[in-house]
Amino acid sequence: MFSVYVAYVIFLIVWKSRARLENRYLILIGVAFFFIGSIDFLHALTFRGMEVFRVPGINLTIRLWLVARYLEAISFLIAPLFLISNRGPGMKEAENRYRESLEDSAFAWKVFLVYSVITISCLLSIFVFKNFPVVYIEGSGLTLFKILSEYLISFILLCSLFLLYINRDRFEDKVFRLLAASIILTIFGELSFALYAHVDEFPNLIGHYFKLLSFYLIYEAVVYLGFEEPCSLLFRELKHREEDFRQKAIFLGDEYNHICRMIGVNRDSEQKNKSPSEDKDQEGYHSFSQHFPGIGFQLDENFLPVFIQGPVEEMTGYGKEELLSGKMNFLEIIVPEDQLSILENQRKLKSNPKFVVENEFRIRKKNGEIKWVREITRKIQDRSGDSGNFQGLVYDITERKMAEEALEKIDRIRVKEVHHRIKNNLQVISSLLSLQAEKFEDKEVIEAFRESQNRVTSIAMIHEELHGGKSLDTLDFADYLQKLTADLFSSYRVGKDGINLKLELEDVWLGMDTAIPLGIIVNEMVSNSLKHAFSGKSDGEIRISLRNGEMNGENPAPKDEISGSDPDCLENNRFHYILIVADNGKGIPEEMDFQTTDSLGLQLITILVEQIDGCIELNRDQGTEFTIRFNNEGK
User: Fold this and answer.
1) To 10 degrees, what angle do helices 236-262 and 398-437 make?
2) How far apart are CA 412 and CA 423, in angstroms?
3) Do 229 and 311 fall into the same domain?
4) Could you give the number of structural domains in the chain?
5) Phi, psi dihedrals of residue 542, rounded to the nearest 5°
6) What is the DSSP letter of 531?
7) Is the pTM of this model over 0.90?
8) Alpha-carbon radius of gyration of the chain
């Protein structure tokens, strides 16, 4: 039954991730193992003592076993064939990825349907039509069909191992080795099943052990390695695409440098005297312009075209004559949002003869299609130093822009996946702390575990916000504080129904280096207020304020109302943000210095404020009020 459990686990994990798994080998194997495990489950129910089938019999048991093994061997054989035809060579466009994800999900459903039909057909052959060949005869043992089937299954598995080896570059090394080892063990198991004459003999027992071990190796390959290290398996295709994009970017960079040389743009120095090399460059320009996949042009002093050469209609949809005659103004082709930068560059070109325009903008073709283009324009120099005309090149960079966008999306996916994994691991730690606390009866020990659990949760919530938010490295700290305080009030709910929470929060976006320490600080302060500030009181209020101190012109409170603060901090106006956590409880005793106390929570607050280079002040006038001034260094 262990093998049945493993088979179902493999199926559940693969099926849950079918839209993200771009490796169809794993999709097919995962679906196949659901049906292999189901037949193995029926096989287990046929043993003596189970009393599920009216006629248990060895013949029925071995028939189900043989069907499951045929299904397993054929699945390993055809899986590499789907892997070969899964994706075409080359780089894919970004807009195709969603479609491919849907195709992978649809592929999983198609495989599930095909396996359903095959499995049902085999079961009908055994239980209803009863035309499945006899595999065991009482008194004489296994039939020839059974023995030959084991050898045939072994041969099919050997062929599948060869196909897997051919496609080994599509897998992580560890995953490939585990899959290969699993197939080899399955082959040994089948050979063992072909050698025994009675079901109680030693080769039969060895064969079952080989089968269990082979299933476990599949589990390791597909579940453990495949999903504990998602960047190495789930994003394998993304890695290949990224490398393609980088190679494309290098090529486009070389092409761009060549274009600059062709139109005479020199970033290092301006040549005052014409040299023989200029003649060669001019000849090279005419040769290059014949083959360059862009538009070369010359403009008059009013930026109207006087000469155009290149694939004008292919790039814009308009004919060359339409642009030269003024029937269609090139500025009208440019997307309205980008026209302002074009006009500004034209103004600079007129005022500065040495100015070189390098601009990227979007154009709308005649059929409505949007294209990204890059323009390089400069003034044409004559002997007087200014001819009044302009020349340049415009070429299509849509592919490069899509590559950059794809790379950015890849980076976002990776960073978000990291945040997701960290959040999950922290939640596991939090759950372990909660489980461990249940083993103790001492209230102080239980409280210590709960405090540690809340600290871990405060960090996990930050990674959850970063995983789900638009920004990769900053988060809306006001929104985070609302969720954190709600979680804390839920944690300390017993006997605290009369305690109110008042939030005065401005929109503040913080980087991780600031947000994580600050989140723990708020966790400690609110926890301390809920635990100690209102003992003996049925009601009270905790107030949290977050604002931009620079914008609001905040100044430190008078020194005589402050205790436990750094005098230099009170004179420092360099801090941009102010966080106040206050309560109207009984307050911290006057004789206690919160910066030197033995309390772990207060020690943490002091250490973390220093970590973010902030300043902390304590006002004991009415209850307890901590004021923290800080900057957003991590943003």
Assistant:
1) 150
2) 16
3) no
4) 3
5) -115, 130
6) I
7) no
8) 36
